[in-house]
Amino acid sequence: MTQFKRGLSTTFIERLKELDGWDKIAADKDVFIGIRDEYINVYYRGNSLFKISKNGNALKIETHYKYLSPPSAGNNGYIDITNPDDTKK
User: How far is CA 64 from CA 23, 24, 35, 60, in A?
Assistant: First the structure.
């Protein structure tokens, strides 16, 4: 059984500091930030708004399509906000 880990590397933290708007998200008392092993989930009222993970030395930000477009858009997966053309289907 693998051990559940929580924590972020120094590199991850440095990239977060460079992320435009992160300071406002982190200061927002209405969101909950779940720190995992080298990724973060940001929740609002129990819903996971987006996930931030490492992608090499950069960050990858993903959100579910339902937060960006109407359900009739046909997408049924997560959208990489940092690279919208790269979607999981």
Answer: 22, 21, 19, 13
